[in-house]
Amino acid sequence: MPEKKSPHGRNWPRFSNPPITEAILDLKVELPENTSLDQLAGFQDSIRDMYPGRRTRMAGKAEMAISEDKGIQLGEGSTIASLGYIFVSNDSSQMVQARKDGFTFNKLKPYDTWEALRDQAHKLWSHYVEIARPKYVSRIALRYVNRIEIPLPITDLSEYVLVAPSTPRTFPVEFHSFLMRMVMPYREYRAQAIVTETIEPGQPNSTTLPLIFDIDVFRQVSLEPDDKAIWEILDKLRDLKNEIFHSTMTDQAKALFK
Known about the structure:
Blueprint: E1 3-5, E2 11-13, E3 20-30, H1 37-41, E4 53-61, E5 64-67, E6 71-74, E7 79-88, E8 94-99, E9 102-108, H2 114-132, E10 136-151, E11 179-186, E12 191-199, E13 208-223, H3 229-248, H4 251-254
Antiparallel strand pairs: 1-2, 3-9, 3-10, 4-7, 5-6, 7-8, 8-9, 10-13, 11-12, 12-13
């Protein structure tokens, strides 16, 4: 199994069948107050050949009132508005978001390499900066969603992941669902991590248990949009993501990704 050396000296195995279903690179920003949706729509002009699809990204809040005679109704304080746009690649495997609160690059399966994801995001970010003119970057984040097909039958989930539900012996060996969420500071990286673990509902006669292992790492910052430190921090966050993943997966789990 070939290894990839990180910028910080650690060696991580590179899998031929990685369990990554989606990788997300996100930069939160502060834009000028007069930034318009038309400006953000113009982001597509220079990337239309590769990202021809366009969706509107909505945001809002809802207030609900419940009464016996009228049931559930939206309150007067409910609002919904366009936040920006999502531009979709020809094969729907890539999406780039140009929003009033930031920029996001989404890469769906198949996943290639971190370098390919980072470099493509960097090119698209340059277009976003030119169009939206952000004043500064306030948050840098990476999120990787992994879907691990664990062979059935299984008697102990910890054979595959070292972070798993611990139940009394009187509980059934099998369970239909669970959800674990951990928020942890990593002072070495000046970052935080949110790790979420759950399972998808099994299909009839399925031979595998789909385990979702979601890693979200981020750092709060205040940086100019052209500061090269943004991309250096992303390299470090990727290293943190790998540290969490490889320290949690057992050798039995990693064998599934070869």
